[in-house]
Amino acid sequence: MDDLLSEFLTETSESLSELDVQLVRLEQNPNDLDLLANIFRIVHTIKGTCGFLGLPRLEAVAHASENVLGKIREGEMEVSPRAVSLILMSLDRIKALMAALEQTEQEPEGDDSDLIKQLNALADGHLDESTVETGISGGLNASAVDENRAASFDEPLIPNDDEISKADADTRTVPQVAEIEPEASNAVPVPTSPDKGMQAKAPAQQTNGRQVANDEEPKVRESTVASQTIRVHVDLLENLMTMVSELVLTRNQLLQILRSHKDSEFATPLQRLNHVTSELQEGVMKTRMQPIGNAWAKLPRMVRDLALECGKKIDLQMFGAETELDRQVLDMIKDPLTHMVRNSADHGLESPQDRLAAGKSEIGRITLNAYHEGGHIIIEIADDGRGLDIERIKTKIVTNGLATESELGAMNDSQIQQFIFKPGFSTAQKVTAVSGRGVGMDVVRTNIEKIGGNIELKSTRGRGSTFMIKIPLTLAIVNALIVEAGAERFAIPQISVDELVRASAHSEHKIERINNAPVLRLRNRLLPLVTLKKLLKLDDGEELAENNDLFIVVTQVGTYMFGIIVDRVFDTEEIVVKPTAPILRHINMFSGNTILGDGSVIMILDPNGIAAATGELSIAESHLTDATKHKQRRDDLSSLLVFKAGGKAPKAVPLALVARLEEIDLAAIEYSNNKPVVQYRDQLMPLVSIDGTAEFGNEGRTPVLVFADRERSMGLVVDEIVDIVEEKMNVQLSAERPGLLGSAIISGKATEVIDAGFFLTQAFADWFDGPAEETQTSHQTARVLLVDDSPFFRNLLTPLLTVAGYDVTTIESGRDALQLCEDGEDFDVIISDIEMPGMNGFEFAQEIRTATRWKDTPLVALSGYTSQKDLERGREAGFSDYVAKFDREGLLQTLAQTLAEHRGAA
Amino acid sequence: MSDARSLTVGTLSSDLIENENNEYVTFTIGGQLFGIPVLQVQDVLGPQNITRIPLAPPEVAGSLNLRGRIVTAIDVRIRLGLCDREDGDEGMSVVVEYGGELYSLIIDQVDEVKSLSDTSFERNPPTLDPRWRAYADGIYRLTDQLMVVLNVSRLLDFSDRIG
Predict the structure, then answer these.
(1) Confidence band (pLDDT; 50, 70, 90) for A296?
(2) What is the mean pLDDT of each run of 10 residues along chain B (163 residues)?
(3) Does the beta carbon of B49 lie under 8 angstroms from any beta carbon of chain A?
(4) A293-472 CATH fold
(5) Nearest CA among A468, A492, A481 for reference residue A378
(6) Would the CB atoms of A584 and B72 count as touching at under 8 Å?
(7) What is the C-alpha to C-alpha distance for residues A753 and A690, in angstroms, rounded to an integer?
(8) Domains in chain B: ranges and CATH
(9) Would the CB atoms of A602 and B68 count as touching at under 8 Å?
(10) pTM
(11) The domain at A234-287 falls in which architecture?
(12) Residue among B60, B65, B74 minimizing CB distance to A599
């Protein structure tokens, strides 16, 4: 069954039984306002939930009863037995509907207008008390209603006519019985005040009667969901947990004693105790753990409604819903999470029009991701919306007096972004019904910090925001490796241990030193090492004993891999992570502490904190920058496709340029306009050979490298594909021949790097402006930043520029380029494409020219359009020069010229 | 914790009971008598196995396991700026709760529970060491000595240190 529905059924059946009691009590004490308010609240909640779940029948009935209660509450109506019985009747109706709902997961067909009409009439005051009394006291009327109700039910609810008549019979008989012996069936407190007499009793008994009717079949089903779960206070579980921990410790001590007394008669019962204790421990632990998906269950619906309300298209993606965490923690983060998702949907994502205008997909995306990381649970909430507007935050900070302009001037963007966590801060310009009520991120942050967690934010304007919540797994069970350093024991979460290496002076693994910094050769990599003893200041100044065997715990934090030197390694043990005392929370070397099986307290090491302490970029560094850095690092190495064609020397081309590798049947080659073509994916693909000949054999098959850019593709016919290697492309000799960029050492062999661009022009004369000539540009080692969204052109121009002597960095968007600027990178010249999604070249240029460190760096535009108008617009935006996209010659010349001018000017 | 020796707190001497009496668990550190309101004291412990915590502030002696709860041990001597304990003198502990956490205050020797009258209470003399003044609520004049009332919240408020 749907989680929401089953939760609703459980909750509502609890509320209903409460209501039964309270309504009768209200009848006795009509002036008890608290009671009335409580009843009203319960009915109101039921109504609201029904509306939320889309249960119109239930909602209508609850709504009508709420109306009546509302009148009573406002003093417009007296609490009369008639009113109470009508409401009780509607409660019964609700119960019956719920029974059907539980069975079929759908509301039964039917009509409640009879009941609703009565309720409304009562609320409007049309129903006078006299009709009421005759109507209800006999119970006849009620049974008539009952008949209506029964008839309106679906088949499965009332399987046969016998049941109906039985139910009816019960309904009829019970009131009579009650009149004779009112105290007999007192499941519902029976009013005893004599002045109310039968009037009061009858309705009370009728409730019973109705219940009896329900008891037949539906009632039994109704209780199944409700009885599957019970509510237990978390404190109770917490106590249980503590007791179980105690029990486990005692058990361990007993087992320890047993080991020294062989053949003890206690052996068998102790084994049994052992098992039972383990199971008990496991069970109790489980009671507290819940998948985070529970906290997410309501989000899709909320996001959907929000999307409708705000006229946005939102795609909510959720990963890691099965990640388990402590129930109490879950409850604490539920609201912050909801709030943040709401924020993302309301403020973060733009309207479909704005998104299209920004070159993004119309559908905004919100991603929720939960996973374990080193004794913590990380929850990421990311959107690909507009990101935080730094300028607006600044204005807000200044107007709210949180900081002064000059203070802001000294801050970087990420520091400024942190202000959104300050109390009373909300950037939403208009307060919508959805969010922006001033209770904002500060509340979220407070809630998260309350449970010992923290929250980080990264946001890039135009690209979206990511919030990372890191919360400790308070009661989560972790497998940990117990190690020793400086006579103290520590636990390292197994999850962050990659491997263990034993190092000694004589073994193959030997700790070596570079200016006292220990390192280890591990599978052709140099692993930086940290000494735990030193890090924790436990070494008393003594030098590391070189001869002793040491153990190295190889750990990975993000992409940073390092080894922790420890003195000894013990066992692994399941531990329960407990947060450290507040006094110790500032030591980020520890993620918590725990009690081991032998009863001693032990600190749990946090590899993130250790990595941070060793100078490696702190965890606070964004994943985003990590990704860019990673990308740049990868850029140094390029994947090259090595092949043979026309000559002995192996040839290579950047693999990224090659769209596909195909093998074609030579017989399938056709000629069009004297050029060889082949039918490929319903298009004619021109074929080019490496030596320019248009003749191919007639038989056999030949490998073809397919180059593609947008709709067009061409095939380069080669003899043999040799390998794909990953190497730093360092073109050393500039080639004399057209079609070759030069030579490079690849896999230890001199390899000719081909100029894919040349062959493209062979296939499509208009692909570029005629064949390229090799130019000997003066070899400056100027740094060039190439901004182009098309990977094809990036890969095409990189070798060209490299060969011309430039140090090329490529990046795929203006946004990323600005990030590089913020990261402190510098370039001598920037080449930028104009047509780019997101931020186009003109915007990029303006951005650079207005406010960044790069405002004096020459900027060359690269575009398909080179009309006079374009040129002017480019200059206006701040470009120094404008080159046609395919004019490689022109590009090199322009670069040389621009740089010369700039250097001259500088 | 097998060796967590819970000591029975001594019965209060009845002759001290007066109208406005406050009960204190008293103990000595470096010969000075201190008191903590009896209701704040959860346990009195003998010497314990304490796990050292590297990088912790000096007054944090370590943590220990008290019936499945991790308790942070604070060396009150160091907190008060007194000289280090002599080797072999392991001291005793008074367990108190502060901010939902348990702390074990390591002191020299636990004395009895005293019931003291308001009339013998004095405010901190201004000549008291500023650190002591911060942690003490006041002084009781006993017949043969003076007792300093420790304020547990202030003693355990390390926020100044963590910043």
Answers:
(1) confident
(2) 42 45 90 92 89 89 86 90 74 89 92 90 88 89 91 83 44
(3) yes
(4) Heat Shock Protein 90 (3.30.565)
(5) A468
(6) yes
(7) 12
(8) 14-156 (2.40.50.180)
(9) no
(10) 0.41
(11) Orthogonal Bundle (1.10)
(12) B65
